Write the structure tokens for this entry.
Amino acid sequence: MTRNSKYRLLSAIFLACALFTNLRADNEAVLFTARAPKSVILGQPFQLVYSTNTNDSKDLRLPELTGFNILAGPFTSRSSSIQIINGKQSSSVSVSYTYTLQAQKEGSFSIGPASINVKGEKYNSNGLSIKVLPPDANPAPTQQRSQNRYSEDSNISNETIFIRTIVSKSNMYEQEAFLVTYKLYTLLDVIQCPMKKVPEFNGFIRNDIELPESREFDYENYNGRNYKSVTLYEVLLFPQRAGSLRIERVDFEAVIRIANRRAMRSIFEDPYTNISHNLSAPAVSISAKSLPENKPASFSGAVGRFSINSSLSNKEVKANEAITLKVNINGNGNFRMVKNPEFKFPESFETYDPKVNNNFKVSASGLSGSKSVEYLIIPRQSGNFEIPAAEFSYFDVSEKRYKTLHTPAYSLSVLKAEGSETPIVPGSENRFVNKEDFKQLGSDIRFIHTEPILLEAPEKSLFGSLNAWLMYVIPLLLALLAFMLFRKHAKESADIKLMRNKKAQKIAQKRLKAAQKLLNEGKKDMFYDEVLKSTWTYLSDKLSILPAELTKERVTAELEDRKIEAALADSFMQILNTCEFARYAPNTGQKEMGNLYSEAIDAITTLEQAIKKG
């Protein structure tokens, strides 16, 4: 094959690829977009770019650019690409129209959609909002040079790069959410600025806000100077107690690109050097007010704005058929303090632990979403029953008062099931025994005895003997002992606090077994939630503290009154703090979770022994 033949063959291949690219592009949906910086500086040029994914675009028409001058444009650029991934081929085309603009005055401006014609059809782009910032009041000498031409480390100072700690509010109620933003301001070329260590935020419940992986710098005028700014980290905090609370400083490490001081020896030598520079976001203090004292009985610490609704799967069923009562709590606030509504079901109803589904979304505006609670109920006896309404109370921050919401009361008709029903014995709810029919096991026909009869002397009568007395006395003593045990059990069963106290360890161990299963499955959030609930429930039951009054301060005071060692009280506080904060730490691993599980078991076992000795 001659050289000219090879040239013709390659030209044909390239031409075929170009035609195929255009064919594929024509079959795609037409996209027409506009992009520009969100903020610009008065007097400095910037670019407005319109892009489309087809070569057949024409007749670009701009909207009215109020407040801007067109310095140049449009400059048209075209590009195409072909990709083959796993044997599948895809192609793309991009056509861009670039304008250079300059703002005429300060303020916020809107640029309407542009239009373009593709094969006789009109397509509109998206609109844009641009904020025009004033020029620097006192430009620094280093700013008059290019952003990338800082040649000495001495140019890195608190005026050229720093981080602000911005709180959305500094005064609020306890359990009221507020936003903390860590924002970088720089005049330098910063490549990255990661956080060295996630802060503990002692005294707060924390919910991290997920930021986009790719974040672009934007201009912001601060103290009369225009900086490139970007949000590094955002978190939603809920103060857990009233008083003055401090958010400690947070350390970051910025990687800055600076120009080399010495002259370049080769064109292959990199003219820039990356250096690390430590930055700290300053500590701030906030003030949290106590909630009013007139708390409703059903208040569990929920603060925000909520609504509640419920539904019953069926209002007429047969005995022994299951029904579902579903409750939804929606709103914005500290959902983690929202407890399940308590219903007083009839004694003949068998109930199970409710199924809870949390659907929360964390954003700069707060923690919003819903909590769904499903109760599975099985009526065991026919008749007409009523399920009373349940209450849910919360503190409305905007109106500064408590609000109590109610579910409707439900009337339930339970029909008689097929076969006999099991009677309900008072005090023995949820325990049922099936009746059995007695069957004749023998025959009433007796045959004539034909064998010789052997006569024996009658034995001595037992009446009046020691054995006879024992036969009467022992059953009587056993009956008396059973009666006393029954009365003791009935008395203890009536004492709810005593029963909760005696069963506290058993219930905690049962819940911790569920936490161990979550630990083995690597479900971090669910594991910490389960350990937290187990610990709080155990302390509430063992120390006889009502859930509405259950706080860390109350637990510590109760342990001190019982002469429990301070180290054991500190262990419980450490477990609670770890559960509240560690599940949000990105470096939490299986080992730390395993250590927390062991600490919880040891603390509960030690407290049981200490209380028994006391």
